[in-house]
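Q: My labmate handed me this sequence with no annotations at all. I'd like to see what the chain might look like in three dimensions before we decide whether it's worth expressing. Could you predict it?
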Amino acid sequence: MVEAAPPSLAAPPTPYYERNGITIFHGDCRDILPHLGPVDLVLTDPPYGIALEEHGRSGYDWTIQGDSSSSLGESVLSSVANLPTVTFAPLKRPWPGKWRQILIWDKGPAVGGGGDPLTCFKQTAELIQFRNTGHLNGGRDSAVLRFWIAPNDYHYHPVEKPLPLIRYLIQKFTRVDETILDPFMGSGTTLRAAKDLGRRAIGIEIEERYCEIAVKRLAQEVLC
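A: Here is what I predict for the chain of 224 residues:
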């Protein structure tokens, strides 16, 4: 099912949260993106269009808005095609378009599902695609990023990315005081990492429950 884009807002949106260079907008990113100023990097994790299900993990809401198809992610990534962009992607279906490179995120042996467990290997990796970026900070690292996680590392969101990995990507692709945009903010990991590293950040999230979580994470003095 193709998800139609909403009409653009007539007036600039009001921030849900704004403090110390970090801004959160609650709403559909397709509505809000046209009203934003320049940014130095888009770092995001769009819905993959896999209709994520619970698969036995009771008591947790796995619903992700826009995950019924890949059209939402494709539309938003197309709208920022001229910007420096780093995005997560499913292993079997990279995002279309012209990308400088595709990295592999090795999640480690403690997680991973997908497919018939009797005939398929565990899917313990995801892709990270990037384009329009400049010189990398630091050395030339391996294209396989080993940031291992465990099932109990998902504290705030069903597809939460590890904070150390997001910090690493921010350090490789941006400098202090630059601005990072995450149109699919989720529970605010990108914003928290940006704050820790002295960057500015803008996050957009359609579900208010995750905006609330992000604000609480930003308020903590230390977040591991």
